[in-house]
Amino acid sequence: MRTTSPVQDSGNHQSTTSMDMSDNNDTLHQSFFFGTKQMTAIFNHLPPPHLFHSSSTLQSSHCVFMEVICRTIALQIHPTETLRVTFMVDVRGKPGLNLPPGYYGNSSVSPAAISKAEMLCKNPLEYAVELVKKAKARVTEKYIRSVADFLVVKRRPPCSRSWNFIVSDTTHAGFGEVDFGWGKPVYGGPVGGTSFSSPYALFRNGDGEHGIVVPVCLPVAAMERFKVELWRTTMGTNGDSHVVEPIKISSML
């Protein structure tokens, strides 16, 4: 897959220098549903070595690749800007770490896949897939211990928001199985995303289809471009084919 929608050319550089648009009141929140149809369309953009239909973890990862590319195009990021996608990698079971039995605290690190905007948008989807695979492969025992030392010395500095997009996959957190005595929840997961992050969650749409829901926050104009690009890439029937209504939470108490 090669995207036909170019990032903004160097002669008309109007994009900001940061993914953080929290001070921009002209933003729109929408959630997008990735079911069987959408996931099949994404897989069709990948060569056989990258087809992992049986793994829901990799399915959510492929949603990440598609979202990042569509966001880059929608935000009209300058081709020479350096983009980062930061994600969590669980270190439980890594050789040499030997976490004590029953440990339930944080046990993850946050590597980043890095690319120029132009390279991300002009290359096939497998280019983004390989970037993330290489970033995950760097998470060795030495890397993990180095991160731990860094966090102690630097006292947990905040993540950079300079074109850094943070992804959190909660599809295996078990939110949908929590039962406080009232039965299984209709929805369990994050409330929404921010301008620089998207938490992924399991979701069942109005037709009863199970899939992944992705909350997106973008400036209004960028959101429209995002929807068009996502529709074009995943072969929807119209620009709103993936959009789901905001989650409404009510209580019987």
CATH class: Alpha Beta
Q: Fill in the CATH topology.
A: Chloramphenicol Acetyltransferase
Whole-number average pLDDT? Answer: 78
How would you sum up the major sheet?
A: 7 strands, mixed
Task: Tell me how many strands there are.
Answer: 9
Q: What does it look like?
A:
GO terms for molecular function: acyltransferase activity, transferring groups other than amino-acyl groups. InterPro entries: CAT-like_dom_sf, Plant_Fungal_Acyltransferase. Belongs to the plant acyltransferase family. This protein has one domain: Chloramphenicol Acetyltransferase (2-Layer Sandwich), CATH 3.30.559. It is built from 6 helices and 9 strands.
Which key features would you list for this structure?
253 residues, alpha+beta, Chloramphenicol Acetyltransferase, seven-stranded mixed beta sheet, two-stranded antiparallel sheet, 6 helices, 30% helix, acyltransferase activity, transferring groups other than amino-acyl groups, Plant_Fungal_Acyltransferase
How would you summarize this macromolecular structure in one to three sentences?
GO terms for molecular function: acyltransferase activity, transferring groups other than amino-acyl groups. The protein is of the alpha+beta class and 253 residues long. Helix content is 30%, strand content 19%.
